[in-house]
Amino acid sequence: MKAVVWKGINKIEYTDLPEPAVRPGWVKIKVMAVGLCATEVHMITGKFDGGKPPHVLGHEACGDIVELGEGCNASLFGKRVVVETYVGCGKCQFCRTGRKHLCSAGEIGYPPYNGGHAQYLVVPEGCVRMLPDSVSYDEGGIMEAVACPFGAVVSAGIKMGQSVLIQGAGVAGLSFIQAARAANAGKIICVVRNDVKAAQAQKFGADVVIDLRKEDLLTRVREETNGLGVDYSIDAAGASSTIENAVYAAAPGGHVVLYGIPSQDAQIQFPVIDMILRQITVCGYTGNEFAWDTLISLVDRGQFNVKDMVSYSFPLSKFADALDLMEHKPADLIKVVLHPWENE
User: Fold this and answer.
1) 17 Cβ contact partners less than 8 Å away, ≥ 6 residues apart
2) What number of CA atoms fall less than 13 Å from residue 162's CA on the CB side?
3) Residue 251 contacts by C-beta under 8 Å, 6 or more apart in sequence?
């Protein structure tokens, strides 16, 4: 099969590999679409340590089940599925309490589990979610990138009418906007730095867009919240300044959701005294396995827009071009999808 192998810092190779073999309880998927995640770009370029090469990355994958391991449900054969990446050991306290996303067993796409930057992929039966006919492979190929912010909103417990600030308007930020809307949040405020992102934030449901080129963040947040700050302050950017401002923008007794991953050498100064005196709750989130079915149902019913988040697509053979695009970050970039079976 064709695959892209990450071989070291700034080293990738489009090559032939043996097809992966199924094992008991696992299924084999013909990958039809797979996202290219910013985390993978950071791993390839040496900015984030998510494992050691050589390795086939790709944790945002969907396709068709073409082979079943011993003990798998026979009805799964031929089904269109999207991969939910957390493997889970099934035995630890986290797995036993429905929190396998906290299990140390790891994720599909990160060592030791090969990912979807290949024509075939094997995953545990419990990691597949049915993809409705109304949802395209491209939508399925970025579903994991949407499910993580959606799951963070579910875990954080945003309630009807509560105000929300989102810093960042990439795929995570735009997913947070829609997830907050699905949770019946009150005023949803998004922070941007250019006109293209401002338009995207409005398209995906933000009530207020703050343009940092023209406006002061904290002043505008207070204007929009009767001087209090927001109930939920979400950082989807992962910059030192956005993480710090997330705390300052929260109302007394408010919540800060940390989702964007900063670079490993980032120097972040948490305003600890402010957090204590104003009783701010700060928590990091990566995902929630119970959010998947709800998200897929919303997408199926047309109540969550994933389709318009696919801004660029490439054959898998053009991985280097996709990587270059991700590094240069054109203003309209939301998400890149790769097609393993598409000719050049």
Assistant:
1) 1, 2, 3, 5, 56, 118
2) 23
3) 163, 225, 228, 229, 230, 231
Per-residue pLDDT band for 288 (boundaries 50, 70, 90) equals confident
Packing angle of the helix pair 240-249, 217-224 (nearest 10 deg): 30
| 167 CB neighbour count, 10 Å cutoff | 28
Cα distance between residue 46 and residue 126, in whole Å: 32
CA pair distance 83, 103, nearest whole angstrom: 17
171 and 309 Cβ atoms separated by less than 8 Å: yes
Q: Which of 26-40, 156-170, 223-237, 267-281 has the lowest mean pLDDT?
A: 267-281
pLDDT value of position 19 = 97
CA 134 vs CA 21, 80, 84, 144: distances in Å: 30, 11, 19, 17
- Closest to 342 measured CA to CA, from 138, 146, 198: 138
> Which two tokens mark 156?
């954080």
Q: What is the DSSP letter of 302?
A: T
Give dist(CA 157, CA 179) in Å, integer.
Answer: 11
Cβ 283 vs Cβ 258: under 8 Å? yes
What the block records as the tokens of 34 is 């797979």
**Alpha-carbon span 252 to 227, nearest angstrom:** 11
Please measure the distance between the N-terminal and C-terminal CA atoms of the chain and give it in whole angstroms.
Answer: 16
Within 10 angstroms of residue 218's Cβ, the number of other Cβ atoms is: 12
Distance between CA atoms of residues 91 and 148, nearest Å: 23
Residue 98 has what pLDDT?
86
| 147 CB-near residues (< 8 Å, 6+ apart) | 84, 287, 291, 292, 295
- What is the rounded average pLDDT of the residues 123-139? 97
